[in-house]
Amino acid sequence: MPEPLKNLYNETFFHQLSSELTKAYRLFDQQSFIKSIFDNDWASKALKQRMRHITQTLHKHLPDNYRTTLEILKTVSSKFSGFEYMFFPDFVEIYGLDDWENSLPALAHFTKYSSSEFAVRPFIIHSEKKMMKQMAKWAKNSHPHIRRLASEGCRPRLPWARDLPNFKQNPAAVIDILETLKNDSSEYVRRSVANNLNDISKDHPELIIGIAQKWKRDNPLTDWIVKHGCRTLLKSGHRRALTLFGFQSPTDIIVTDLKLSQNSITIGGDLNFSFEIQSKSLAQVRIEYAIDYVKANGRLSRKVFKISEGCYDRKKISRKQTFKDLTTRKHYPGEHKLTIIVNGCEMADIPVVVSGNPQSEIPATKIAAGPR
After folding, report:
1. Which of 21, 171, 214, 285 is the most exposed place for a label (fewest CB within 10 A)?
2. Bridge-partner residues for 314, per DSSP?
3. Domain boundaries, given as residue ranges, for the chain
């Protein structure tokens, strides 16, 4: 198992941080700061809880004057880079909502070294028009990290952050930002634009299809944004999205010879499976598979995995799917289901029994062909 991200916050990390804080503020008490960080609840804190705890502990050990402390933090933040330093913009999120004049330049500064994508959201919620006017200015900034902030900060469904309900309902102000950034020279920015489109597609699929039609073939970079921004629609089998990218209903395509390496696996094991795609003529094909996982309550929850895209008339495919527990997915015993999907249509499926009793390699016998 990889080391939990929260463990980046170790003694070495805080000694380096406190050393730079002391250079910027000679009255900084390193010993008290580190002792306060590693309090009785530290071990049980998750990543974002640790981040917030660092912010609050900094507040207790730095000057009471907000502007003075901002200058200290701006000096120190430029010595480090990475998401683990998002407690710098978090300081603005907690303590700077009443001082926009100093807080907004600080957020722009901090995002160059970590990201202010979480910290801008309370400002948007507090005064949407005012903050989106600032985001529009940032979208034209010369620094790519600040331009990215203009998009990432207003994503309606940014992971790990509070949603922006007004933009889930009406994303017009967000679309204006994305229009400015759609041809950006930075991949970092373009990826954020695509992720923002994908967020919006979950509430306004037809709107995103319209934007995709408008932006498609604008240039190769924008084509990538459009495709990546429609990925949830493509995975969900949205017919207009699939057709837009050349994936027609698979009326002349069949799936044959779907087999499992074994018809029962243990939690922690791997499932190997294979099948063949056949088409009467060369066709643009998007191949995926879905696992309907048994959850703790006995219900099924589907996860779709992309295999490939291309022009095929015949293609044999083998894949391995792990059933090891992850931080994002816990497995439970019961009858799961494997489904093969071609151009958004379910073509074949077979049950997968997950238990504690592995069986020898047995070819699966259930084969379904043709879209359903």
Report:
1. 214
2. 278
3. 5-244, 253-355
Q: Sign (positive/negative) of CA torsion 153, 155, 156, 160?
A: negative
Cα separation, 298 vs 296, in Å, equals: 5
- The pLDDT value recorded for residue 33 is 98
The pTM score is: 0.88
Contact, 151 vs 139, CB < 8 A?
yes
Query: Residues 234, 204: contact at Cβ < 8 Å?
Result: no
Superfamily designation of domain 5-244: ARM repeat domains (1.25.40.290)
In total, the chain counts a number of residues equal to 372
Strand partners, 285: 310
Q: How many CA atoms lie within 13 A of 277 on its CB side?
A: 32
**In angstroms, rounded to a whole number, what is the distance separating the alpha carbons of residues 210 and 199?**
15
Nearest of 46, 48, 55 to residue 89 by alpha carbon: 55
Tell me which DSSP letter residue 162 carries. Answer: -
Six-digit token string for 325: 């527990």
Q: Which is the CATH superfamily of the domain at 253-355?
A: Macroglobulin (MG2) domain (2.60.40.1930)
Q: What is the per-residue pLDDT across 56-108, written as a single tens digit (0 to 9) for each?
A: 999 999 999 999 999 999 999 999 999 999 999 999 999 999 999 999 999 99
CA 289 to CA 263: how far, in whole Å?
17
How far is the C-alpha of 76 from the C-alpha of 192, rounded, in Å? Answer: 27
